[in-house]
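Format notes (please read before filing issues)

Several people have asked whether sequences and structure tokens are stored in separate files. They are not. Every record keeps both together, in the order shown below: the sequence lines, then the token lines. Line labels are part of the format and must not be stripped during preprocessing.
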Amino acid sequence: MIRTQIQMNEEQIKKLKQLAATTHLSMAELIREAVNKFLLMQVLLDREELKKRAIAIAGAYHSKKKNLSKAHDQYLIEAYRK
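Then the structure lines:
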């Protein structure tokens, strides 16, 4: 493990110490667990958010281009060049 330092306010420390005492876990272990849960949530939220955005945009726009399904890569390249 890599040792690190963090700064917390007094209320956070107080609550963390209380939780450590009631769960019989160290403050460090509680913090590691919290960070792991936070990171996992971020991955899940990011995937869900991307999925929602993709579904929401599907069919929402009309290009008026007759060959878009065949030449979509070329149109995308042109759009990014602008």
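For reference, the curators noted about this record: The chain has a mean pLDDT of 89. The helical segments are 10-23, 27-57, 68-81.
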